[in-house]
Amino acid sequence: MTDEKEFDYRDYIQRQLRKIDDLDERRHAKKLLLDSLGEMFAWTEAKYRALEQRVMNGLDNPWKCFNIAMTVADRADYDPINPYWHPVCAEDASPPEDCRCVTVYLMADDAGCREFAGQGTVDATDRTTGQALRYRIVKPERYQTCMRGTYVLFSRNHIPWQTVHMGHMERFFDLVPEGDIPPGTQPVFRWGNWEQQVRQDAMPLWNMQRKMLQSQEFRHPCLDGVVFEHIYYLGDEKDSGDGCLVDVGEDILSIRYEKNRVILQTRKETPGDASVCRLHQGEAVSSYGYRYPVLSNDRKDSFAARYLRQAGNFIQTPGELMRKIEEMSGIFRIRISGYEILGSAAGGIPGGDVLEGDMNSFTGTQVFARDQRSLLLFRFRKEGETPHDYLYRSQIRYILSQLQMEFLEYRCVGVVE
Asked: Which of 55, 154, 167, 329 has its CA 20 to 30 A from that of 216?
């Protein structure tokens, strides 16, 4: 996609005026062109911009309020009053005192994470007693449980699921002690080759904030006497661009948002307390110490994307695929050098390490019991170097995960050249 460069008429007129040698004539021309025609040019451009905005608003994406962004913060730098970033799991911000588990974040690429998890254990020494300790490396189950709950919450609120970027969450590991350790143990880990990549006491943050609500009005039965409406107030702080997901512990028949309140229709006469998950949008607010990159499933906006989304058409062309990948590239410059359709995976995939779109595995969706689909192989070309290259392949896997939801007839895989 190319952007048109806006023509600077003022600069052009001033450059042309310098060619007039007669100063009186130049002064007269400047007054005529810049002061008179200049106002007309400015008025015309303002009208064109307003028209373009009206067309864009008519093709607006109704689900843009439900984008999810993630980052990482050290527990010592966590800011509880930050209005944008909130812990993925509340227990990360204030772990229980009897917790013996240690959570670490590994700043390594996908291959490094597999190697770190594959070693199985990490040795440590008690800082005070010198006792030898050993910790098992396990993946935190609480994050997968949280993502499964988020997926269910989207379904109950009838919001289409968009792949959540799991690049940060996949790099968290729990270190569980083998055997009993006394209270107050202060382990000093021997990381070996991982000394520069491991970050202790880190926690994942996202732009979702959960708040408990209570129905503050009498229930309103509908005419059939079966469906009930319940009103929940969200407070004055809700921004119009933020999305809200309501959790009442049961299927919601319908949900309607009004200014600072939400109206639910259920078959239950007294649903009791409910919680609302507010998804903060707009520019992320950083606090001191928030230095890790932001990974988001927000897409770059364009007229073509809005039009195709509104029309409901899906054009399977090379240009359309490149546009989709560019939209989801995020903080990286990701390009595809080509793609091809191969047979099944049994024949092998040429080109090196194969990446798959596996960030939606927790949804449990399996369309093909015996997956004999053809492979849609994307060949990605890496451009440039960034300080966050350890997340590069995770970004590609996120893109493949989202494309997999759109190309169900193929199994989407990729290689980096």
From this structure: 154
Name the CA dihedral angle for 87, 90, 93, 97, rounded to a multiple of 10 degrees. -160
The amino acid sitting at 247 is: D
Using pLDDT thresholds of 50, 70 and 90, give the confidence band for residue 346. Answer: very low
- What are the structure tokens assigned to 184, written together? 């107050």
CA 31 to chain centre: 52
Domain residue ranges in the chain: 9-58, 64-207, 209-279, 299-416
The average pLDDT across 221-243 equals 69
> Does position 308 have pLDDT exceeding 80, yes or no?
no
Return the number of other C-beta atoms located less than 10 Å from residue 332's C-beta.
Answer: 20
pLDDT at 97 over 80: no
Neighbours of 264 (CB within 10 A): 22
Q: pTM for this one?
A: 0.79
